Amino acid sequence: MKLEKITGKVRRRFDDACGTAHGLELLGERWALLIVRELMLGPRRFGDLRASLPGLSANVLTQRLEQLEAAGIAVRRRLPPPASVQVYDLTDWGREAEPIISELGRWAARSPGHDPTLPLSPVSMMLSFRTMFDPGKAGSARTALGFRFGAESFVVRVADGVLIAARAEPNGVEAVITGTPEAVAGAVYSDGAWPPEGLRIEGDAVAFQRFARWFELPPKAPAA
Fold first, then answer.
1. Which of 1, 58, 104, 124 is buried deepest, with most CB atoms within 10 A?
2. pTM of structure
């Protein structure tokens, strides 16, 4: 393996024509794939990214964003007035990485060492809905639910076996669930008591209870 300098930083080169090897060159640096994950539901400010990835230093985040921009995966732009703030977003090609993130998450969730009680970012929770949704369990059901995690709001809609999760104000929904991503994950992926602790549900709580039955973590792989 050789090391190559890109935008002044040392990056891995594998000298391997396989697309998997080049994919690791693009997204294999520590934190790079998680930054892409956090941009998957729309543009974010630098501070927003740091808040969602608390273990990531400002210096490393700057380096990774520069590398993602240089590779054509992310782009930096300024929102129009009245916001007029600089944000980072994925390019159309960068957004195509979502199936990679989803399938890696589904595969890794089967690990005996995976701990689903660890912290989650709001975007990670929404992508988990997209990944673990079982259309067969939902059938022809329709629902629209809002989720508030601090200052961040999302709407999840299910119709005819298709789930859409997007960053939006929860208007015109059956229920609004307020709390932490970890509390929502506990309500959806565990068999705990209902109503779940740590969540406030405004509106039709039964709609959220029904929604929670449409998800399931994959079975654990056999231990070695």
1. 124
2. 0.90
